[in-house]
Amino acid sequence: MELNIAVIKGDGIGPEITDEALKALNAVAAAFGHTFNYSEALMGGCAIDATGVPLPDETVEVCKKSHAVLLGAVGGFKWEHLPGHLRPEKGLLGIRSALGLYANLRPATLHKALVDACPLKPEIAGEGFNILIVRELTGGIYFGKRGRDGDTAFDTETYSVAEIERVGRVAFELARKRDKRLCSVDKANVLETSRLWREVMRGLRVEYADVEYGDMFADNAAMQLVRDPRRFDVIVTSNMFGDILSDEAGMLTGSIGMLPSASLGTGTLGLYEPIHGSAPDIAGLNKANPIAAILSAAMLLRNSAGLEKEAAAIENAVGAALNEGYRTSDIWSEGYELIGTREMGDCVSANIAG
Question: What is the CATH number of domain 1-102+264-354?
Answer without folding.
Answer: 3.40.718.10
